[in-house]
Amino acid sequence: MSEYAIRCEGLGKQYGKTQALDDLCFSVKRGEIFGFIGPDGAGKTSLFRILTTLLLPDTGTAIVEGYDVVKDYKALRKILGYMPGKFSLYQDLTVEENLNFFAGIFNADIRENYYLIKDIYDQIAPFAKRRAGKLSGGMKQKLALSCALIHKPVVLVLDEPTTGVDAVSRREFWEMLIRLKKEGITIIVATPYMDEAILCDRVALIQHGKILATDTPVAITQAYPRQLFRIRSNNTLGLIRQLKEHPEIQSADMFGEFVHASAEPGKLDPAEIRTFLEQAGLGQTEVSIATPGIEDCFIDLMRKENE
């Protein structure tokens, strides 16, 4: 038996003139949490729809647990759990009715598989008679995950499952995923949140339908050694413009209320940057050392891709 649950070679998908997936190649090991990190339009949803047999690829092959997603789609659907980015359960059915419906589709025994969803379903059980459309965002996601798991899938595919969900529900959701991993379930997940990306065993950074890098979160951040500074000023546009004029600054990008600027290790310190900005007429600025993360590596890779 292969150590890989998923193997994709030369996968391509095009919509008109838009190349959604471009010669995509990657593999996912059995029992790991594999994350896809990328902006909207990177190709994550197209990829996930192909892996779950809902979309045909134009080129290449995708093998999931030994099944070809095109030739063996009927057999594959029995062992897959899929949670799309948009809430797709029956909003007019109650929580309980949705769970029973999905269990019935797969001819699954709720009592037998309840241990898989117990920790998360117990939180929505008090609302079992409430229509799904009346649930909060976090409750909807918990119900959707419960329905995706009730037939005990071998591979679980999650397309940005925590987008728009409160921080507490996000944490609970990921605690659940880590427990599911211990059950031997292979999990492939797309997420826009970098604090979630570091919880994956491995991640792939994807942009314009191409994978820019694949490795553990730690290895990816260590692969791009540089000094990173976090800077704040009342004149953000002027700040970025001036930083890019500095001969030792490699990049300057906006992150929330801060600007992140990078340089080669040992080339600069906060005091030097502060002095440079004051001499350029930026006035008082706050400069501190930051720890490079996956976001910063992604920006570096995208910049190199566009050069």
Low-pLDDT stretches are none
From the 3D structure, determine the CATH topology of the domain at 225-291: Alpha-Beta Plaits
Oligomeric state as shown? single chain
Share of helix among residues? 25-40%
From the N-terminal CA to the C-terminal CA, the straight-line distance is: 42 Å
Q: Please write the string of helix (H) and strand (E) elements.
A: EEEHEEHEHHHEHEHEEHEHEEHEH
Rg of Cα set: 22 Å
Q: What is the fold's blueprint, element by element?
A:
Elements: E1 4-15, E2 18-29, E3 33-37, H1 44-51, E4 59-64, E5 67-68, H2 73-77, E6 80-83, H3 95-105, H4 110-121, H5 137-149, E7 155-159, H6 167-182, E8 186-190, H7 194-197, E9 202-207, E10 210-215, H8 217-222, E11 227-232, H9 236-243, E12 249-255, E13 258-263, H10 270-279, E14 286-290, H11 294-306
Parallel strand pairs: 3-8, 3-9, 6-7, 7-8
Antiparallel strand pairs: 1-2, 1-4, 4-5, 9-10, 11-13, 11-14, 12-13
Helix pairs in contact: 3-5, 4-5
Describe this protein's structure.
With 307 residues, the protein is of the alpha/beta class. Helices cover 35% and strands 28% of the residues. It is built from 11 helices and 14 strands. Strands 6-7-8-3-9-10 form a 6-stranded mixed sheet, sandwiched between helices. The chain is globular. The mean pLDDT is 88.
List descriptors:
6-stranded mixed sheet; Alpha-Beta Plaits; alpha/beta; 307 residues; 11 helices
